[in-house]
Structure formats: C-alpha cells, structure tokens
Design a protein that fits this description.
- The protein has 148 residues and is mostly helical.
- Helix content is 48%, strand content 3%.
- The protein contains five helices and two strands, in the order H-H-H-H-E-E-H.
- The protein has a two-stranded antiparallel sheet.
- Strand 1 and strand 2 form a beta hairpin.
- The longest helix is centred in the last third of the chain and has 18 residues.
C-alpha cells in the first residue's frame, strides 16, 4: 500500500495536483476542484495536528473495520460523509491552494511514522503508518475524482 511517507508516492501526488486546473471537472460528488484541494489540505492539517477534532464515533473506529477501510477495501465514489473538521478551509485561488497543499504534503513526508499521532474523528487512534496510507489514499481518491 502506498504511503505519503514514501518519496515516490509524494512525487506522484504532487505531479497529479499540478495537473489540476480551474476547468478540471468532477467525475462524481459535489465538490468543485477548489473545494477538493482545500478539503485535502484540511485532512493533512488534521493528520499533522494543526486541526483538532472531536471524539471518534461510529463503527469505523473499531480496529478490524478500520484496517479493512484504510488498507484493503476500495473507497466508494460520492457516498462517504467526511467529518466536518475536513471542511474547515474555504478555497481561495487554485494556484495558491495547490501550493499550500504541496507544502503540507512535503511537511507530512518530513514527519516520522513512529511516535504519537492525532486521532481521527471517524477512525479514532491511528498510527503514523495508518496516517501515511490514509493520506495517500485520500489524495488518490480525490485526484481520481477530478481525472488526475
């Protein structure tokens, strides 16, 4: 499973992010390309501890289901409800928002998977390894949403 802790995986998503334009059309869901970039930035801010969240609720916080969703199962297109913490930032300019997202991706890559990591509002306590996989899969999912 790819992870944002891998330099090649970060380079891949950064290349795909660079391919986004204001004309990038969504293939599913309701977000605009700008909203998606801001949403992905919020997910990374959460993983880096810059955004707080409430306690984890729902069945995805239990380890067997969490492992399946994070590491095995395909993600649904347009059906999952993301936590409100991941819609904190309003989009501004696509160029500036893409640049900010790139900075967050590189910052994540400089972190170490060992040690304490913030909890996720749906998945609960995650290891650094889990956050790396979640970060990559989340970006991959939304970049595919916009044809990247």
């Amino acid at each position: 499973m790819k992870s944002l802790f891998e330099e090649d995986s970060r380079a891949e998503v950064l290349r795909r992010i660079a391919g986004l334009t204001p004309q990038s059309a969504r293939l599913w869901g309701r977000m605009t390309v700008g909203q998606m970039v801001a949403h992905c930035s919020d997910q990374l801010r959460l993983s880096l501890g810059d955004l707080g969240s409430g306690p984890a609720r729902g069945p995805m916080r239990f380890p067997p289901l969490r492992r399946l969703i994070l590491h095995r199962l395909p993600w649904p297109k347009g059906r999952a409800q993301a936590p409100p913490e991941l819609f904190t930032t309003a989009p501004a300019s696509l160029d500036g928002d893409r640049e900010a997202l790139g900075v967050l991706i590189e910052r994540f890559g400089r972190a170490t998977p060992e040690g304490a990591w913030p909890h996720h509002p749906k998945f609960g306590n995650l290891s650094g390894r889990d956050w790396g996989v979640l970060g990559y899969r989340h970006l991959d999912h939304h970049l595919r949403q916009f044809g990247q």
